[in-house]
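pasting for ref
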Amino acid sequence: MSREELSFWMGRYEARFPTDRHYARNHMWAQRQGPDRWRFGFSAYAVRLLQDVYFLDWHFEPGTPVRQGDQIGEIESSKAESLLYAPVTGRMVQINESLLDDPSLINVDTYQQGWLFEMESQDPEVLSPQQYLDHLAESWKSAQRLIKGQVNE
């Protein structure tokens, strides 16, 4: 299956972004699953920064209403331990149960089997692929300082 992609260079590493979905500012992709239902996962940019994911935990039950920016879980990887925040306002519908047993799917199949959760949301604030690349270009300099050049080495 061929699909159109855009790419962003993180030093020597290329992060690719399918154009068949939208993106949130917190580095998650969003793909419409129904009229008000969206599936979310980490963008290649986020996966590259995290590297090998080995633990994922959720702090919500399906049906829970959340506001954009609410803490919804946590993730541990070879590079970071991070809190996870809701990318948009809505209601959490489903988690990808497969990731609880094998979170490496996030690294192996970022844009398909590695999806994180689904939400119901009306008019979510998401970016087009090009808007997301523009967002990355604006924030890359500060991101490099935060990771102290690890991605460029």
